[in-house]
Design a protein that fits this description.
- The protein is mainly beta and 378 residues long.
- It folds into four domains: 77 residues, OB fold (Dihydrolipoamide Acetyltransferase, E2P), CATH 2.40.50.100; 71 residues, OB fold (Dihydrolipoamide Acetyltransferase, E2P) (Beta Barrel); 132 residues, Glucose Oxidase, domain 1, CATH 3.50.30; 56 residues, SH3 type barrels, CATH 2.30.30.
- Helix content is 12%, strand content 40%.
- The strands form five sheets. It has a 16-stranded mixed beta sheet that branches.
- A hairpin with a 3-residue loop joins strand 12 and strand 13.
- Helix 3 crosses helix 4.
- The longest helix has 10 residues.
- The chain starts with 7 loop residues before the first strand and ends with a strand.
């Protein structure tokens, strides 16, 4: 049977999930292999060097660089507090004194007798990495972090903004084609991750932020609303670091697009469960997808998940595979693979490419370049 390998969008109700939790610098790992961890458990910790401040002490004291060490009240490595006297000099038999105060809390890093500069460094910045999902520590990366393993629901989106958040899952829109409205956003949704239908607008997002909703999972988002939300055109960038007060995961694409029935049904079955989402997206080389993870530690055993995972192992795109179109004019439309013609086909652009015959959810059959579709893992 013919099959092809394409970028895949994972929408899986039960599977093994691995998440790497790595520090930006070497530090201390706080857990052991096999430890059971909750999403908020700190698994590794380090310190980033504080900001550097250069002080031209010789100019402030009106001395030469060679005199600086005699005037310093602090040595290299000494701690220093804001406004504490760092150095002082006196002249005319002590009648006139000049002092130099520290502008920061930190320490003295270096003193130069050549330039007369003193380098101060602010206190280190602590960095802690949490587990993000409920699971088990599968691997310890020495002095760097861990890999956490869990079993549960894993859904990838098309686009997202905002970082990692965790909250209980709440279905708000009663159907896949219903937009999220102002009336849907109520105070009882505080700290929840809510599921909408076809689209969410910026005014609804703003109300959700005020109430304290942690995240929104929805089918579509208009680029105009995205610009209003961020305050700028996003362009080609890596998202996930936006400080917008909540995280948004778009499952289908831009514009008003109903959420896939399968995605909605899976989320509905998981309503009320603790859910981790991350809006981080990169669409260029090294693709990063926004994600929704619902750990099912209490519902299924590892053996049950492993059996199902192995039974559903994917070999690629083949007739019958569920796909999503990722290019115009059918962007965001779902369909099933009918056939995978072997020979190259000439397109309107006069380029010859490998194609796939697809039956769209509307019933229409079309021929598309294979690069214009992605498989949806089930």
């Amino acid at each position: 049977m013919a099959h092809a390998y394409t970028p895949g969008l994972r929408v899986v109700e039960k599977t093994i999930i691995y998440k790497e939790r790595r520090l930006p610098l070497r530090g201390t790992v706080l857990v052991k292999k096999g430890d059971k961890v909750q999403y908020d458990k700190i698994v590794a910790r380090t310190e980033l060097p504080g900001n550097v401040h250069m002080m031209n002490v010789v100019n402030k004291l009106n001395i030469t660089p060679g005199e600086i060490k005699d005037c310093m009240l602090k040595k290299e490595g000494d701690p220093i507090k804001r406004d504490e006297v760092l150095a002082k000099s006196s002249s005319f038999f002590g009648l006139f004194k000049s002092i130099c105060n520290s502008p920061i809390n930190g320490s003295v890093e270096s003193i130069s007798t050549v330039t007369g500069q003193v380098v101060l460094r602010e206190a280190p910045i602590p960095v802690e990495i949490a587990a993000y999902i409920d699971g088990i520590v599968d691997e310890v990366i020495e002095a760097e972090g861990v890999n956490v393993k869990t079993w549960g629901t894993y859904i990838q989106g098309i686009f997202g903004v905002g970082g990692e958040v965790v909250g209980d899952l709440q279905i708000v829109s009663k159907s896949v084609d219903k937009p999220l409205t102002m009336d849907d956003i109520t105070p009882n949704l505080k700290d929840k991750i809510i599921v909408g239908g076809s689209i969410v607008t910026n005014d609804v997002i703003q109300k959700a932020k005020k109430i304290g909703i942690k995240g929104i999972i929805v089918g579509g988002l208009d680029d105009k609303d995205l610009k209003e939300l961020l305050g700028y055109d996003l362009g080609v960038a890596i998202t996930g670091h936006e400080e917008i007060g909540l995280t948004i995961v778009v499952t289908e694409g831009f514009g008003q697009i109903k959420m896939a029935e399968k995605t909605y049904d899976i989320l509905k079955r998981n309503e009320g469960l603790k859910t981790s989402i991350n809006g981080a997206t990169q669409i260029r080389a090294g693709v990063i997808r926004p994600e929704v993870i619902v750990p099912l530690l209490e519902r299924y055993t590892l053996e049950e998940i492993l059996q199902e995972h192995e039974a559903k192992a994917q070999v690629g795109m083949e007739p019958g595979s569920l796909i999503r179109v990722i290019r115009k004019p059918y962007f965001g439309v779902l369909g099933k693979v009918v056939s995978l013609p072997h020979n190259l086909t000439e397109m309107e652009s006069e380029t010859k490419v490998r194609v796939v015959e697809v039956e769209l959810e509307t019933g229409e059959k079309v021929i598309l370049p294979r690069a214009n579709v992605e498989t949806i893992e089930s």
